[in-house]
Amino acid sequence: MGLIRIAAVSAHFGRDLDHDLDRIAGLIESARAQGVHLLVLPDAALGGYLADLREPDPESLPPAIELDGPRLNRVAALAAEMVVCLGVREADGDRRYNTAVCLSGDGVLGTHRKVHQPAGESVAYTAGDRFAAFDTPVGRIGMLVDYDKTFPESARTLALDGAEILACLSAWPTSITNRAPRMADDRQSRLFDLYDCARAAENQVVLASSNQTGALGGMRFLGQAKVVGPGGDILARTWSKAGMAVAELDVAAEIARARRVLAHLSERRPGAYA
Fold first, then answer.
1. Residue 170's domain spans which residues?
2. What terms describe the molecular function in GO for this protein (predicted)?
3. In a domain, 273, yes or no
4. Burial of residue 242, with CB atoms counted within 10 A of its CB: 0-12 exposed, 13-18 middle, 19 or more buried
5. What is the pLDDT of residues 130-156, one digit of tens each?
6. Residue 20 lies in a domain
7. Which of 12, 49, 92, 170 has the smallest C-beta neighbourhood within 10 Å, fewest atoms?
């Protein structure tokens, strides 16, 4: 496709679905004004995330969203020519999933159900069981949700499936057990950036990382949305405040440049890893 403009968002989303949809509409409008082709919104952008990760209240969980329902249909209409990724609590029969959805005006392009669950999340979500990339108008994309990016195998599986861009959607909080007085000093703040850069560099792909900001219940979210190049370099970021990190690059050319001498995927030795 040549040059594409990628935007990763840090913003707050809560239980009020109408308010969330209005915020999403505003972010899409702002992204369109900046010529964005791919917009990555946070996890739980419709309905918010859990208010307590250790002991979630079953009576106050995020609302369940149907993938073919009116709310995601509205987001698709707003997206039009743009490719937009966002997170929802997906309703599938009696089961609920923490799901990343990628869509455009043509409808849903791909989905990913979060596989790795931290303590307490099983109260609200069923775990997914696979990682798969998919084709979009801006290139082949793979998606990760929150804790998935902690595990190198997640991103590697997507890269081996041809993903050129990893969309990492998060509602990533500060440390629950040992919160630092300053967010910049928090252990999770450091790890969030480390995982983003490592997953991009080790797979030599472009990574767009979104995250929630603000607070919900006892959870305080980090922000730190960013776009990372295939060498692990941060091309644009928002720090801890709400905002939009925008970077323009030729994804295929940048990946080819990163893999010109050292091609991590083709130079693996799987037989030695058992």
1. 3-268
2. hydrolase activity
3. no
4. middle
5. 999 999 999 999 999 999 999 999 999
6. yes
7. 92
**Residue 162: count of CB within 10 angstroms of its CB:** 16
- What one-letter code names the amino acid at 45? A
- Could you report the per-residue pLDDT of 25-74, keeping only the tens digit for each? 999 999 999 999 999 999 999 999 999 988 888 889 999 999 999 999 99
Q: What is the predicted pLDDT for the residue at 182? A: 84
Return left, alpha or beta for 146; rule: phi > 0 is left, psi -120 to 50 is alpha, else beta. Answer: left
Count up the domains in the chain and report the number: 1
Tokens encoding 176? 């629950």
Tokens 């720090």 locate to 239
Rg (CA), the chain: 17
Q: 12 and 213 in contact (C-beta within 8 Å)?
A: yes
Tokens of 183: 């967010």
Summarised one tens digit per residue, pLDDT across range 60-113 is 999 999 999 999 999 999 999 999 999 999 999 999 999 999 999 999 999 999
